[in-house]
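Notes to self after the Tuesday call (sharing in case useful).
The group wants a holo model before anyone commits to mutagenesis around the pocket. I volunteered. Ligand is flavin-adenine dinucleotide. Logging inputs and output together so the record is complete.
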Amino acid sequence: MADLLKRELESLRERCAGRVVTKDDIDYDAMRSVWNGAVDHRPAVIVRCGGPGDVSAAVRFAREEGLEISVRGGGHGVGGAAVTSGGLMLDLGPLRHVEVYPRARRAVCGGGATWADVDAATQAYGLATPGATVSHTGIGGHTLGGGLGWLTRRHGLTADNLESADLVLASGEYVHASARDHPELFWAIRGGGGNFGVVTSFAYRLHPVGPAVHVSLLFWEAERGAEAVQVIDEAVRDLPRHVGVLAAFGMSAPPAPYVPEEHRLRPGHAIVVAGFASPEQHEAVVSPIRAALAPLFEFGAAMPYTRLQSFLDESAPWGVLADERAVDLPRLTPGAIATLCEHAGRKRSPLSFMPAFHLGGAFSAVGEEETAFGGSRAPHYTVSIVAMAPSPDGLSADRDWAHAAWEALLPYADGTGTYVNFITEPDEDRVRASYGREKHARLAAVKAVYDPDNTFHLNANITPGG
Ligand SMILES: Cc1cc2nc3c(=O)[nH]c(=O)nc-3n(C[C@H](O)[C@H](O)[C@H](O)COP(=O)(O)OP(=O)(O)OC[C@H]3O[C@@H](n4cnc5c(N)ncnc54)[C@H](O)[C@@H]3O)c2cc1C
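Result:
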């Protein structure tokens, strides 16, 4: 294979405008690295795709040479599916352009852009589309799997705001997918992941947002865990759409000046409320939570929307070693609360925690069949159990913690699987459970049309079906 590649690499270089990187290049290790430092996959060749032409040429080349293909957007998939071992990695990193059309409230963004790229460009016009809660996350994998963020209760998933996309198919051909062009493909890429082709550009609907938004973080120590989780659960039930909310179970108190010294880095439970309306409307949401159970400490500020989007960046630094499990819970029963509290206290690394999105509002106003999103549209929690540590030993301990906590929470799940972007090892059973029988069959039929040989299989894979 290596000899063949040496000969054939010349032809790949002639066909692509972007760089072709192999293990002989000094920056090979940097180019194959992703957010999760525990991923150590070694592609035979990396193509730094400068445009759709490079993507098409590289896909055709890989198929001619029998090389496995992986697609790297922002490199945040925790399982590392973006990096093939021994095959060809399409690195969309150079495709980061963002064009904003403020009058049409539309942004056209390169398939390798990050949310920091998109938010900076759209906020220049006071506009935004729902993105991830960590700004260095790629828009590619995030959008294709669905996309949860601070604006999801107000404007739905990222995928709900996708107007169209340009793709390179497994055949190397280009297609434009929208409600009018290739409508089944357009349905499938709004939740069905990277199964159907390589998206070189996404066009999003934009909404007026900010520029200032209101953020409150309320934290309770582990000793009052059950009470605190119950208060959080009651608070999220009837929230207005103008707030986004994220619970952080088992979060370690930050070493910040507003945290009493003896509590810094000790685990507890927090709720973060992001308010997109007036300061008074924000306070009307936060004050009943504070009144129900006085927090150990609280952080509150008005900040630019772009700052909110990077508010959690430091909690998930690039290169940390990570693993993840996730579960959807329809509600927090007393049993689920006791289980959350019991396991939250057992983690070792201050970085590990259980972020939980409470989904509802505009998210639940979209019909179950309107998009391919894997998971229910009924209001529910998507709880991710994230092990993060700076060392292999630390990861090993908290990986066991995450797996044990996940298994203990499964009896409280609604049986519909979970959000595919939070599945680190997407085996067939888990993928089927997320989509449900009918949606999975429809996705398999679309896959059979657009990728009949399962060329794009390093993902939450849908095998082509009839
Ligand atoms: C620190 C961190 C924070 C996160 N926060 C959130 C959050 O707030 N909300 C949320 O919903 N999720 C969140 N996630 C999960 C995130 O949505 C997924 O990991 C997503 O896959 C990341 O996309 P990416 O392009 O960066 O990933 P990559 O690892 O580059 O890609 C993952 C997969 O997506 C596919 N893919 C990526 N780009 C393309 C493309 N252009 N065309 C075709 N296929 C493509 C490929 O199959 C690839 O294997 C977070 C993850 C991390 C690590």
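Two things stood out.
Residues 34-35, 71-78, 81-82, 92, 111, 132-134, 137-138, 140-142, 144-145, 147-149, 193-194, 198-199, 316, 421, 458-459 surround flavin-adenine dinucleotide (CB under 6 Å).
The domain at 2-91 is CATH 3.30.43.10 (Uridine Diphospho-n-acetylenolpyruvylglucosamine Reductase; domain 2).
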